[in-house]
Amino acid sequence: MKRFQFDSTALRYFLTVVDTGSVNGAAARLNVVSSAVSRQIAGLEQRLHNQLFERHPKGMRVTEVGRILADHARRVEADAARTYAEIDGQNGRYTQTVKIAGAPGFAAYALPRKFAAFQAEHPTIRFKLHILDAGLVSERVRSAQADIGVTYSHTAEKDIAVIYSHPAEIVAVMRPGHPLAACESLHITQLSAYPLALPDGGSALRQVLDMACSLYNVTLSPAFTSNLPGAAYHYVLASDAVTLCARLTAVEHLESGRLICRPINDALLNAGQLQFQTHASRPLSDAAHRFLRFIRSDAPQLF
Question: Gene3D superfamilies annotated for this entry (predicted)?
Fold first, then answer.
């Protein structure tokens, strides 16, 4: 079996190209000349006998082999960071950063308050929260760019362990005084009479909604789509439109009274979960373990 180690500088340069999308961008971030970055990439490609990037006029697009190497490089970085933190702990300098990838809505609204409460007991632990589309959160965990993922999911994810989950009730959100506000609950067949603000077609909710519409032979034509839930809420506030989301993502607007919601009666739509995810096999730092234990113990207040 072939065994060799990658040069740490080469991996660092490679990951910077992945992150910036170009050799020039990587060189600027690393404060080196572009030729130095190009040499490191060429050396890696020669060693692996594979292209790591597809070269395009507008930048570098990582290949499947490149993606595999990027995942490896990020795992190496994460393992090294965890090791240094454990050594610092032995020396009395116990400062760790927990990296969390979260879907818009709940993660951005509820988690910062939990970070503050947790840090009251563990003041040396830091948090880094990155908000991105729900469908991308698990990939961040898989590639070691995040220790913990907080997202909505309807299916099991490869290499992902679900540490804690909570039902993700889907609701129709509208302004107070909307005609549908008189209903205690709604069915998706009632929505076609009103303008709809829906998530983009690539989102997990939109995919399940499309499946439900097919099942009931209903066509929903959104008047507005966005990958940002907050944009849909502002659109709904200014019109007779309705948007669909997990109740937890809209809690800030609902608690303020600016918007109201009505539950959607559909088992398929409500089969999803809000999940706290970790990698199935990669060890977690002590700080991440502590925070997850805190979340589980504090779950009734969290939701």
Answer: 3.40.190.290, Winged helix-like DNA-binding domain superfamily/Winged helix DNA-binding domain
